[in-house]
Amino acid sequence: MFFQFLICIFSWLTFASAAPPQTKLGCQSTCGDVSIPYPFGIGVGCYQNSELALECNKSFTPPRLLLGNIPVRNISLLSGTMTIAFLVSFNCYNKDGTSSGKFSQKMTLASLFTFSDTRNKLTAIGCDTYAVMSDGSGDIFQSGCISFCQNSDNVVEGSCSSIGCCQTAIPMGLKTLNVSLSSFYNHSNSWAYNPCSYAFLADSEQFKFSRSDLKNFTGIGPEIDNQISFLAVLDWVVGNETCEKAQTNLTSYACGDNSYCDDYHNTNGYRCTCPYGYEGNPYLANGCQGLCLRQGGLCKAKKVTTACIRPWWRWGWGILLLLFVAIAFWFYGKLKKRRALQRRQELFKRNGGLLLQQQISSGESNVEKTKIFVTEELEKATDNFNENRVLGRGGSGTVYKGMLPDGRIVAIKKSKLVDETQIGQFINELVILSEINHKNIVKVIGCCLETEVPLLVYEYVSRGTLSEHLHGKNFISSISWEDRLGICKEIAGALTYLHSSLSTPIFHRDVKSSNILLDENFKAKVSDFGISRSVPYEQTHLSTLVQGTFGYLDPEYFHSGQFTEKSDVYGFGVVLVELLTGQKPISNTRSEEEANLAMHFISSVKEDRVLQILETRIANEARKEEIQIVASLAKKCLKIVGKKRPTMKEVLIQLENLRVFQHQESLRLLTEE
Ligand SMILES: *[C@@H]1O[C@H](CO)[C@@H](O)[C@H](O)[C@H]1NC(C)=O
Ligand SMILES: *[C@@H]1O[C@H](CO)[C@@H](O)[C@H](O)[C@H]1NC(C)=O
Ligand SMILES: *[C@@H]1O[C@H](CO)[C@@H](O)[C@H](O)[C@H]1NC(C)=O
Ligand SMILES: *[C@@H]1O[C@H](CO)[C@@H](O)[C@H](O)[C@H]1NC(C)=O
Ligand SMILES: *[C@@H]1O[C@H](CO)[C@@H](O)[C@H](O)[C@H]1NC(C)=O
Ligand SMILES: *[C@@H]1O[C@H](CO)[C@@H](O)[C@H](O)[C@H]1NC(C)=O
Ligand SMILES: *[C@@H]1O[C@H](CO)[C@@H](O)[C@H](O)[C@H]1NC(C)=O
């Protein structure tokens, strides 16, 4: 916008703007695609002289502009020319040498027109061709050209030089032209490739000879009564006299107030032009418009005798303007830089940067271990948050893979929204994670708060989420039973650590398979602490708005709104069932009352159908005893709290016992062998 405005101002100061009109007010300005400048015009009052009256015949498509009966293709005020259609003369023979058709074009122009001797050439095409042009009677001049070819191979493509094609200049000031053709041998030698001779007046700028013209010449002008035509150029003037004479009678003088008169070189007559620096139609009263005139009439007063020289002050303004623009840009750049800095500081504040700094300075947490990144570092690391770096998209944001300058591969989470709660969750997760150091909990490396949305940087865990491996199309059954047991124990270990080993326990509050990450050895890492809370020991529950994921939500928490450590156990129970069955926590392929996996599982246990709902791989790999133990453990986890839902610690102990049991089993097998 700003830039366009500048350009506009600049051109106003130095150059002319919109093109001035070419036609008298209220007159038709075009016919088809041909424009009609004054002194030409259609209808009384629209032309300067009756010889310059045109017609527009709309029964043709496109409409055809006519001078008398000659089609007009173009009118130029600048060069005083007009492009017209000129009928092609022909002389055709049958194979036996008898005539099959002959036509000679004769054209007589009105007193203000002449055939342009500089643009036109008499042009003939044929291999047995003798073209003659003359004025009407042949008294004044007669001329022509001859074209021959021995065979069609002699003909040079594009070259009009007497083999198949010839051209000759026309005299100055010609007003009548008769073009006729004759042949020497009635085309009997060349009939096969050239049955006709053609001759016409051609605008040499538009004529290009082609070998195929010998066989089938079509012309480039409009067809007139089924006859082909070519384009020729006429010169025109506006009066019969010289300028000097014309200016003595101002009622008939054709040039506008501020235009020059030019004598026409060929015959008597004159034309008008705009002075240098002006443009427009010199035949209209005030048709020539220069920038001087349009910007205050500086030159008008001097009567148009010299070309308008752009005054020095206009250049001065131009230079001043440029200077001004340069300075403006410089300031703009500075301002932009400052704005950007301010914006970053604002964002840092809004994104909880102050909260974080408080935490750091109060020494309450280990946050200082986490690095605060600047925007550029993370943009570089993720290739400007390139789409093909996306690792996953979750409810809370998008996770990108990135590489830090020191070569470390990291996962970078970009918050989705920028509302207060999201930012709160971000800082919460950062603070919680930076206090934790456990091998089965994802590590946070740093954060960036200067961006529009805050960013968190984690260690990169290569195999993605447990959910993907259990339910993703490409991974189904990718994890062995043994690894699954390991994963159970690792999650249980991590949750037990959160619940019982910290000075203030942490409830994760969103335990689900898509929040469990797997490393290259299928070791589990619990992640996503966005809604987790530190809850002092003496406080047994947390009353909050119900948050979490449907399918993993403890029904009791759902009803009471009171989250206890056992609600995490419920979520863990659902993950256990997922590991056993490979089914999704919520699925509409199951019946309505069993869409919820936990319900489905419990009813299967009750009806003793557990084996039937196991994932095939598990049914094959796991021992019956192991399945019984894990299934009953899962059932306990999904129990109502009052009915002895175990704590995470108890769950862990049972899972550890399973390992002892496994160990004993293998010992038993060994001793049996
Ligand atoms: C337009 O051209 C057609 C065909 O040549 C002719 O019959 C008709 O009279 C012309 N119309 C006018 C208005 O000149
Ligand atoms: C008429 O001539 C001008 C200049 O020679 C050219 O720019 C324009 O395209 C021509 N118009 C047609 C319809 O041939
Ligand atoms: C050529 O044709 C004309 C009539 O069109 C005829 O009078 C003449 O004899 C012919 N000449 C030759 C050489 O065939
Ligand atoms: C044109 O010129 C040819 C050859 O000079 C002549 O025979 C013919 O009668 C002329 N045509 C007209 C219409 O004057
Ligand atoms: C002549 O050429 C035109 C196109 O240039 C084509 O439409 C026409 O059919 C050709 N006629 C013959 C007889 O080859
Ligand atoms: C030009 O002069 C001729 C004769 O000298 C005359 O017949 C014709 O009408 C004049 N044309 C104009 C436009 O004055
Ligand atoms: C000036 O031109 C007008 C219009 O062509 C004409 O009527 C008038 O007689 C001319 N005057 C002189 C003095 O030639």
From TrEMBL:
Residues 385-658 form the Protein kinase domain. GO terms for molecular function: ATP binding; polysaccharide binding; protein serine/threonine kinase activity. Keywords: ATP-binding, Disulfide bond, Glycoprotein, Kinase, Membrane, Nucleotide-binding, Serine/threonine-protein kinase, Signal, Transferase, Transmembrane, Transmembrane helix. It is found in: Membrane. The chain crosses the membrane at residues 312-333. ATP binds at residue 414. InterPro entries: Kinase-like_dom_sf, Prot_kinase_dom, Protein_kinase_ATP_BS, Ser/Thr_kinase_AS, WAK-like, WAK_GUB. One of its GO terms (cellular component) is plasma membrane. One of its GO terms (biological process) is cell surface receptor signaling pathway. Coiled coil: none annotated. It is a single-pass type I membrane protein. Residues 1-18 form the signal peptide. This is Protein kinase domain-containing protein.
